Amino acid sequence: MTSVERSLVATHASDTTHVDAAAKAATLAEALPWLEEFSGATVVVKYGGSAMENPNLQESFASDIVFLKRVGLNPVVVHGGGPQISQMLDRLGVESEFVTGLRVTTPETMDVVRMVLTGQVQRQIVGQINRHGALAIGMSGEDADLFTARRRTTTSADGDRVDLGQVGDVVAVDASFVRTVLDDGLVPVVSSVARGEDGGTYNVNADTAAAALAVELGARKLVVLTDVPGVYAHWPDTSEIISQISVAQLRALLPTASEGMIPKLTACVTAVEGGVEQAHVLDGRVLHALLLEVFTDAGLGTLVVADDGS
Asked: How far apart are CA 200 and CA 279, in angstroms?
């Protein structure tokens, strides 16, 4: 290679470095007003789906949570673990039964739910976050009576009432322990198991639990991570994603939503109607989705706001 060729290569490399540096600087400049706006805000994140199963997405999520904490926000993670529960039940030879999308939870199944959510999935999330700094602490919805649940029943396709066993609806939230953890500068990681009014233990929907906790904490934002890009305008047509929607508009879409999306959309409605300023349906399959949503002008997914648009 001649001296002229070497000079051209060096110049090109330098130009590329300057372009990359300029792009990073622009991203940081764009984030600044959002950093100021959300400083000190509590953000409840419902974690599940592909983001919880893919190793790269797990790492992306953990680093995002730590970043939020380091720049002055107060993230709270609420997680489910349906696929992991099903895998363990299959391994143990216990058949899974679902009615209208809800897992029938016998005492035997409840033992597995409790073990997987609090003993396996939660420990994995806490460990991933803590690899970036000793910030996360795990807790169950049973701890300090965080979630209290009431036994839930549903109606089958034939119109018959079905007892789902130890499946519950959240009827009360005591977030005092979560507040203590936040005041200590830590990140609560909460599994969606609840103490029952009757003294039993209940499996509760993680989307519902996250919304109830967001309301009780007076959170600034609820983020629901999903396996879709956002709320579809005309499901099952997936060609158009709604970037912002009011609670009333979202309610109108609920009857046509897919079965798996109904709890997530209902959680957003519950949160915003309960005083949470914003709820966000976000694609958890996108690397660093949380940071892109919170700290960029364009954002991702679908933003749910109060009916007056505030």
From this structure: 31
pLDDT tens digits, 37-84: 677 899 999 998 778 888 999 999 999 999 999 999 999 999 999 889
Compute the distance between CA of residue 102 and CA of residue 24 in angstroms, rounded to an integer: 45
Helix axes 107-114 and 82-91, enclosed angle (nearest 10): 120
Tokens of 228: 């879709």
* d(C-alpha 198, C-alpha 162), whole Å: 19
Task: Name the E strands within the chain.
Answer: 42-47, 74-79, 98-99, 102-103, 136-140, 147-155, 161-173, 187-191, 193-196, 201-204, 221-226, 231-234, 237-242, 244-246, 278-283, 302-305
Would you give the DSSP letter of residue 204?
A: E
For 139-183, the pLDDT digits (tens) are 999 999 999 999 987 776 677 787 889 999 999 999 999 999 999
CA distances from 169 to 190, 194, 201, 227, 245 (A): 16, 9, 12, 24, 26
Please give the Cα distance from 162 to 176 (Å, whole number): 35
Q: Which two tokens stand for residue 247?
A: 């609670």
Calpha distance 85→121 (Å, rounded): 9
**Residue 280 in contact with residue 224, Cβ under 8 Å?**
yes
